[in-house]
Design goal:
Chains A, B: Keywords: DNA-binding, Transcription, Transcription regulation. Chains A, B: InterPro entries: GntR_C, TF_FadR/GntR_C, Tscrpt_reg_HTH_GntR, WH-like_DNA-bd_sf, WH_DNA-bd_sf. 2 copies of one chain form a homodimer. Helix content of chain A is about 65%, strand content about 0%. By secondary structure, chain A is mainly α. Chain A has a 3-stranded antiparallel β-sheet. In chain A, a hairpin with a 5-residue loop joins strand 2 and strand 3. Chain A starts with a helix and ends in a 10-residue tail after the last helix. The N terminus and C terminus of chain A are likely disordered. The interface between A and B is medium-sized, with 32 and 33 residues. Chain B binds a DNA duplex (30 and 30 nucleotides) through helix 4.
Chain lengths: ~240, ~240
DNA sequence: GCTAGTGATCTGTGATCACAGCTGACGGGA
DNA sequence: TCCCGTCAGCTGTGATCACAGATCACTAGC
C-alpha cells in the first residue's frame, strides 16, 4: 500500500488490468453454464461427474465444484439417490419463475430508461438491430437468435446501474434457459411470429423516450408472452403429479 | 413407477416426506452462512480452509465446497493471491446493494399485501410482536434482535408466493449481513431509536389493509433508513481509493 | 539503518484413493 | 409367466496427497 510513496520506479505497473487467474473449476462452470443456457442439456437429463470430467479432460475435482455451484443456484439438482440432473420444472414453478423475471427485469428496464447514457443507448440499439436482422432472415439460425436475444436483454440490464440486480437476472436466465431453449428447439416457428420483435421495438422506443413505465411494460410483455407460449405448448409436467 | 398397480401392500408408503440426505458440505455451508449472517465474520477478515476444517472437525473437502458456493454468491471472495476473505464493500457497492434490496424486497412486500392468507398474516403479526418486545426491552439482546428482525422480514417475503423471489432475497441478505451486523455491533444505539419499529408497524398495517403501495413504501423506507444510517457512520471504505 | 534477497511455512487447487449406497440386469423360485 | 433376492457396476461424498505460488520473518549486504 505504499506503492506510491516508496516504489516510484514501478508506478506505471500500479493500475494494470488485474489479470485474474483462470481456474479449472471456473472453466468447467462456464462450460456447463453454456451447455445449459444453450439448451443442450435438457430438463430431466442426467449428468455424471466422471463422464463430464473425462469429456473436459480434467479430474472430477473441478467438475464437482462447478456442479455444486450450479446446484446451489438451483440450475442442477442432486437427488437423494445421488443422481445429478437438470431439474424438471413444473408448470407452477415455471410460472413463478416467469413472474419473478417480470418483476425483476421490469425494474431493471425501468431504471435503464431513466438513467441510460449515450453509450448505453447505442449498445442497445445495435443489439436490437442485430436481433431483428437475424429474426427477419429467411433462414434464421436458432442458436444465433437465442444468443442475440440474450445480448439485447442484457444490453438493457447492463445499463440499469445496479450490479447486484444484473447478477440476479443472470441467475434467473440460467434457470429458465433449459426450459426456454428446449421449447424453442421443439417449436422453432415461434421465432417467425415476431412477438419478441414487437416488444423489443417497444422497449427500445420507451428507453429512448426515457419512459420508465413503458419500458417496464414492454419487457414484462416480452417475458409473459414467451412464458405463455411455452405453457400453452404443455411441454412441462403438470403439478398434479404426472410422472 | 408401477407402485400403484403392482404393490398395493406398501401403498401407504407412497407419499412419505421424502427425507433428504444431510451432507457435510451442506452443514459447513449452513455454519459459514450463519457466521456471516450474524456478523461474526467481519468484512476484510480472512478465512483458511484448513483452519476452518479443523474447527468443524472435518476434512478440507466439505469446507472447500461450502466456500466455493459462498464465493459464487459473492459473499466471500478469493483474491488472486489465493486468499479467502469476506469482501470489503465500498460505499458505492453498498448503496447499489441497498437499492437492489429496496426494489426486490419492495416487490415481495407488495405482493404479500395483495395475496396473503390468514396464516400468513398471523405469522407476520407474531413476528412483528416478537421483534417489538425485544427492541423495547430495557436490555435488548443484539443478536436476538437481529434474528427477530430477519424473521419478520422473511415472514413477509415467505407469503409473497414466489419461491424464486424469496430465494433471491435470501442471497441479498447474506451479502448485506456482514456489513449491517458489523455496524450494529459498533453502534448498538440504533436499536433504541425505533426507526425499524415504526416502519415495521407501517408494513404490518399496510399488509393488513391489503395496501400494496404502502407496504412497498414501508419496507423501502426500512431498508433505506438503515442503509443511510450505516453510510453516515462512514465505516465503509470510500470508492475513491482509501486503502 | 535500511533495503533487498531468501527460505520456511502456509495458502488454495487439482489428482487420486476409499467408501457407502443406489441402480439395474441377471437368475432362481413360485 | 411373473416376482423378488442378489450382485456387479456405477454414483456422489469425503479424505489424503502433491504442487505451484504467495507471505512473512529473517539475514546478508550496501
Amino acid at each position: 500500500m505504499r506503492l506510491v510513496s516508496g516504489m516510484r520506479s514501478v508506478t506505471a505497473l500500479a493500475d494494470l488490468p488485474q489479470l485474474e487467474r483462470q481456474t479449472l473449476s471456473g472453466t468447467a462452470y462456464a462450460a456447463l453454464s453454456d451447455l445449459l443456457a444453450s439448451g443442450r442439456l435438457a430438463p430431466g437429463e442426467r449428468l455424471s461427474l466422471r463422464q463430464s470430467a473425462a469429456a473436459f479432460g480434467v479430474s472430477v475435482m473441478p467438475v464437482r465444484e462447478a456442479v455444486s455451484r450450479l446446484v446451489a443456484d438451483g440450475v442442477l439438482e442432486v437427488s437423494p439417490a445421488r443422481v445429478i440432473r437438470v431439474p424438471m420444472m413444473s408448470q407452477d414453478a415455471f410460472r413463478a419463475l416467469a413472474e419473478t423475471r417480470i418483476a425483476v427485469e421490469g425494474i431493471a428496464a425501468a431504471r435503464t430508461a431513466l438513467r441510460h447514457s449515450a453509450e448505453d443507448l447505442s449498445a442497445i440499439r445495435n443489439a436490437e438491430a442485430a436481433f431483428r436482422s437475424e429474426a427477419e432472415a429467411t433462414q434464421p439460425d436458432r442458436a444465433r437468435a437465442i444468443q442475440l436475444n440474450r445480448d439485447l436483454h442484457f444490453a438493457i440490464y447492463d445499463a440499469c446501474g445496479l450490479a447486484p440486480l444484473r447478477e440476479i437476472i443472470a441467475r434467473l436466465w440460467l434457470k429458465a434457459g433449459p426450459v426456454i431453449n428446449l421449447d424453442l428447439r421443439a417449436h422453432p416457428e415461434r421465432l417467425r411470429q415476431g412477438f419478441a420483435l414487437r416488444r423489443h421495438a417497444e422497449a427500445l422506443a420507451a428507453i429512448e423516450a426515457r419512459d420508465a413505465p413503458a419500458a417496464e411494460r414492454a419487457i414484462a410483455a416480452d417475458i409473459r408472452e414467451a412464458a405463455e407460449f411455452i405453457l400453452a405448448r404443455g411441454g412441462l409436467q403438470d403439478h398434479s403429479g404426472g410422472d
